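Retry 2 of 3 after timeout on previous attempt. Resubmitting structure tokens to design endpoint.
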């Protein structure tokens, strides 16, 4: 979990871990969440332990239950890889993030969305399955924002540049960054 990321749940922050489902050590996948993310209550992350093979005769995970069934191979078990949430991502209430999905920096996931595919940076997605609604900025601006990567700055610089980060004016943010400690306001 990245610095300054928060999970907003009126029933308590400890509920976050309850909403990471099917995360088993023997699978080996990870949930990686960047800095400055806003994750709303009831957001669920489904990990690879909840996937089942669809190309085998049976979909049941026999080997994990013992009973002499350990001879079956878990190698055929489906793993879609790590689930990765970039920096400065906002995930709306009650969304479901499927295993192996990458949500790009600055993306927004609308309330109650089911994210089944990767989300490009600075894109708003919504629905079931989640589909792009619109890009937050044009391609050139997205490239500039990704190059700035303000979330990787030291906290003093971020603090000085909060007005520019919140302004929507990329030129002002670039100027503030270039001004350095003395000129950034």
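Retry 2 succeeded. Sequence:
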């Amino acid at each position: 979990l990245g610095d300054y990321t928060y999970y907003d749940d009126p029933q308590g922050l400890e509920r976050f871990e309850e909403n990471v489902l099917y995360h088993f050590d023997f699978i080996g996948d990870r949930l990686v969440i960047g800095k400055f993310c806003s994750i709303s209550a009831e957001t669920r992350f489904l990990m690879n332990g909840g996937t089942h093979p669809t190309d085998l005769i049976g979909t049941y995970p026999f080997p994990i239950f013992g009973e002499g069934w350990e001879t079956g191979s878990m190698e055929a078990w489906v793993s879609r890889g790590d689930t990765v949430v970039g920096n400065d991502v906002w995930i709306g209430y009650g969304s479901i993030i499927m295993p192996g999905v990458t949500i790009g920096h600055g993306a927004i996931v609308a309330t109650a969305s089911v994210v089944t595919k990767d989300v490009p940076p600075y894109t708003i997605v919504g629905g079931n399955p989640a589909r792009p609604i619109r890009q937050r900025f044009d391609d050139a601006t997205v490239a500039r924002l990704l190059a700035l990567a303000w979330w990787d700055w030291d906290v003093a610089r971020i603090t000085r540049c909060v007005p520019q980060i919140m302004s929507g004016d990329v030129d002002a943010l670039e100027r503030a960054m270039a001004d350095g400690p003395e000129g950034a306001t």
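Attempt log closed. The radius of gyration is 20 Å.
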